[in-house]
Design a protein that fits this description.
6 copies of one chain form a homohexamer.
Chain A (H helix, E strand, L loop, with lengths): L4 E13 L8 H8 L8 E13 L11 H16 L2 E2 L14 H18 L3 E8 L4 E5 L7
Parallel strand pairs in A: 1-3
Antiparallel strand pairs in A: 1-2, 2-4, 4-5
Helix pairs in contact in A: 2-3
């Protein structure tokens, strides 16, 4: 059996957002989205954990060089999301609800190819919005 | 492939318990359960992480509304376990050993149906007893 | 010597803000405030630690009842700052720069009197903006 | 000026307790102590941080050898409080309310002399009961 | 379905290491391994999480007695890796690159049999090198 | 009273060291320094918290610009200590024991002047060596 190892890199970004549908009334927005519907936005410190799997390269001992993985995440995600308004400033989030569920799917779409080009296989993304709320995504796979 | 996302909510409760069998001698209890057999109880801060999976609802961006998930966990688990004695006060734990393994199985049994009624699928429960000891349960499934 | 004990309660809130001066050019704002000057806001999860000092009441063992302290912080601070835009929605922050330094001073001004009315003495406030940036305030005192 | 350094050692213990006065009615106990008055106890994971100050010994670079400090805390506090019932099993807590305020004062009384005999000066004790509730004690001093 | 529970024990060790190949030039080592190639070593606090799966024993409520699991990890891993130089002092690491990927594979090889002898099934190992870099290993299995 | 606020920046570095005196026997070194005397070194992830005090500048709301504070700490401390051997590679530690007590004093000496030049007053340094061992230094002052 090949010795597949999963390596995880944590990065973080701080962003503003709101959960809001223009085609719903204020009351409906507040009923569904609660405080997250505040019209002037609110924000979070997001922690992002990106898991790449692979067999360690015998020359380096690495699944993927963490310098490369960190550089990819910073360029593709952190530079785009950090200190931004998710609804107004981040292209891939503009036409969808800024829920963490939708965020984690978009971040997967963004990272899958550059990580593949760097020789890795994206296996899982975890996104932490607060100390109590997190999402995890396996590219649509359902390991459990 | 459907875009299944896993969403996790953390709640916590503080409880007393002991690990003890009446059909065993004091010596046998202490040999097997160590300090956890102290007859006058001891206690812990328990952190509970409940994972629900599903495809985000296109209308809300949510797998499940975290307000609903939090409300269900608080009503079904926290209100029953918090500031209680697991051996004496919690009905579902009375006839079984108050190990974290047994606790996490009971909590799964409690939460599976209400989460299903709220439109989610319970996928995993993690229960942290101390900074060093945790259990995880996938409803009996063995993803690895 | 009286046995003064310091008791600390942690609460948290999530908010949007930007660091921005209308009387400065865009360039000047970006030079001084960096990414924090993003015009469409960004946000944070703020952790707030409120320290109250006093001699434990012999009848209760309490410096202050934590239920009361938590209720005061939630009513006076969390309900005002949580899921809000600090620059637009929070009255006490409107005419000043939304730095953590200014926030912690304002939160002290808000909490000092209600805590005194509840029989405590506000001793210290710690406000955490990210995992790496914090401020502490002792009401202007300089213990070190 | 002498180069006084403060060194801190973290230890932990898990214990059961309740907040309860026999000379009060059930109603009065529940009004004041809330869920903490549950008659069958509840419990916590307590984190204990002991600060010792002094000028580093030029022969060792140590204010106090952490092996000694850890050994003292374990013998005097952890062995006495861990996996115990604070109200029933811990002599120094029996006649007083088992609040964290009273606990931290008792722990100071216990540790002050053995630390002095080991060549250190006890400066501060921090006791964490939950992720949100803490007490700190400076031996009755009020640095701020 | 059998009620398989996963139980996790955290231990830690502190060690020095460097990432270095003698058959590469200094420049090549620094290009690939960056700061980790510093010839005089550097070091880390490693957190190790060992997951064992099984059906709780009806007599004890345990998948495996955590006292046994902790003892095995301490004897087989912590005593061997703690306060050591991974390249010079740890036999199983001597002829391979001291990457976390290689470490986690070696630790699996070490722990699999003793845990089996104690009645458990090793299911996963997580090794944390810093707050931002982690690896996970499922014995070569790829659950996702 | 002036509204003095304390602002704290966290940085981190990973380093190898040993506690060892050449003028002592192996036995004496091991008796005093325990596992920390391992001749081939061991290492840690160090967390460094630097506190600067001052009255917020009315033009910026800042005690000190955190970009400047972070830059100073990185240039003066992190670049010097990170991925290094404290005993062999770090000039200011070469002739003294590499205890955290001595480290925190040296780091104070390094940072005091550059922070003053940036308009701040260094008030406190906290250095965390492991999850259980920390030191704090107030420049020799004894606030408590």
């Amino acid at each position: 059996m090949s010795k597949t190892v999963y390596i995880i890199r944590k990065e973080h970004f701080n962003a503003a957002h709101k959960l809001w549908r223009n085609d719903w009334s204020v009351e409906k927005n507040e009923e569904v989205f609660g405080k997250c519907a505040n019209k002037n936005w609110h924000g979070h410190n997001f922690n992002l954990f990106v898991t790449v799997k692979g067999v360690p390269n015998p020359d380096t001992g690495f699944v993927i060089n963490l310098k490369d993985l960190s550089r990819i995440i910073k360029k593709e995600v952190v530079d785009v999301f950090d200190h931004k308004n998710l609804n107004l400033d981040v292209a891939c989030m503009k036409d969808i609800l800024a829920s963490t569920e939708n965020m984690v799917i978009q971040i997967w779409e963004i990272l899958e190819e550059p990580i593949q080009l760097a020789g890795g296989v994206l296996a899982k993304i975890r996104l932490e919005e607060t100390e109590n709320n997190f999402v995890e995504y396996f590219g649509g796979n359902e390991p459990y």
